[in-house]
Each structure stands twice: as structure tokens, then as C-alpha cells.
Amino acid sequence: MPxxxxxxxxxxxxxxxxxxxxxxxxxxxxxxxxxxETLVTGKVSLRHRGISSxxxxxxxxxxxxxxxxxxxxxxxxxxxxxxxxxxxxTFAELMSYFMKESLYIESTELSVKAQKIVENxxxxxxxxxxxxxxxxxxxxHKISTKFDHDVKxxxxxxxxxxxxxxxxxxxxxxxxxxxxxxxNIDITASITRLNINTGNGRLLLQGADETVAFGFGxxxxxxRIEAKKKFSENLDYNNGIDSSKWKNLKIVAxxxxxxxxxxxxxxxxxxxxx
Length: 274
Hints:
Elements: E1 5-9, H1 18-41, E2 54-62, E3 66-74, H2 77-86, H3 88-102, H4 112-121, H5 123-135, H6 137-140, H7 142-147, E4 151-158, E5 161-168, E6 179-180, E7 185-194, E8 201-205, E9 212-215, H8 225-238, E10 249-257, E11 263-272
Parallel strand pairs: 9-11
Antiparallel strand pairs: 1-3, 1-4, 2-3, 4-5, 6-10, 7-8, 7-10, 8-9, 10-11
């Protein structure tokens, strides 16, 4: 059964600028196709050429804020089987995960099934996030940056049950302007999430309330075993105990910052032994 998705552009007039609106819809289409193709093939295509086994299809519009229903279609039978293994609910969960990761936004904890799919993708998961960041997200934000309209992508599970997959506005687009700093800094933090196949995850700085993304900046297979064990052991130790009893790591990292100085990711360069 095809998944039912919706794009909602918040506007009081129930109308949007056509050019910016179409660019936003194009961005949503490209992002959806990139995620769907990667999940069913296990690979990230460099470019969607419009002739593919996976394509997006516009459905009915609806009343309220400007809304457009859509879905995607998979014509290849083998890829259809792969999608059925994933299922609509897990696909929506992963769509949310990858869109948020591309904007350095923390997602909710993945289900066991979704987490396993991400881990099995290996480096393709990070490649997909990078692709979304450079190929789709700017277009998705066009109606927000030009007319200050918020955008939501929703999964319509039933007529009266809709779940927001991702939201975009003038603030979230700032993540696309993030730049890596020229120098390293020392931080003290606990590991709260870690993908054991890519080395990406999230950490919580000592004394902070919000987690921040981190990665190693090189292929995870090139990272020393000592470092891998240090990070995974820290996560394991802190898992399930009160945060007041968490252990911290002293890490050397290079921050990735927004223009206003906010750090959205740390690239790990090393750590200090206890």
C-alpha cells in the first residue's frame, strides 16, 4: 500500500507564490525520492534523472493552509519487496530521521527496526544526509526564506490521523550555512547516541541541556579501535542510569558553527585518556 504524504505551507490566505511554492514542492520531491531510493537499494544515487523505478506523484490538494497530498510509486518488483519489508510507518520514521539529521536537528529515538536499517546502510546513511543537505533542503526552504511561511511534511495514516515528519522555517534553513571552524577546541561531554557503523552520533556537553551532533570526519573504518571503544563504552555505561551519574569524555574537536556562532556539530579529532 503506498504511503500517503502531505506538504503543508502555513499561510492565512490559503495561497502561495507559485514560483517559490513549486520550488518547495520540488525540494520535497527530491528529498523523498533520495530517501526512498536509498532505503530500497542500499545506495545513494548521485542524481535523480526523472526516469527511475521510484517516482513521486501529486495527489489531491486540501483546504486550510495551502496543502498538497503526494505519494511515491515503485515500479520495480524487487524494490517493491524491499519497501514492503520496511513498511509505511518505518519509512515515515526514517524520512523524519534523515531530514532532521541533514539540518543537525535531534530526532526522536528510532525504533529497533528503523535503527537496524540505518546501521545496515553503513556509510550510505551519511552520504544520504550530505546529499539532502546540498540538493534538496535549500529548495524545501524557498517558501520560508522568501515569504516566511512555515512548511510541514506529514504522514497521513488515516483521514483523521496525521503525524508530522519534519518542519521547516526561516530558522532551520540557517543550518545550511554552517561552516567548520579553523581550529580545534577541548570539550567535556557524554555520548548519548552512536551509530556503530558510521561513527556519527550525538553528545551532551557537561552542564548543557541540549545534545549536539558529532562525527569523526573520516571513514569510521579508519578510526582507531581505541577511540571506537572509548565512545561506545561511554554510551553503554551511561545508558539507563541517572544523568547525574554519567561519565564524561575529554574530547578534542573542531566545531561546525552557524553564522551566529551556534555550534551544530563537532568533528572529533582526538581525546584525552583518563
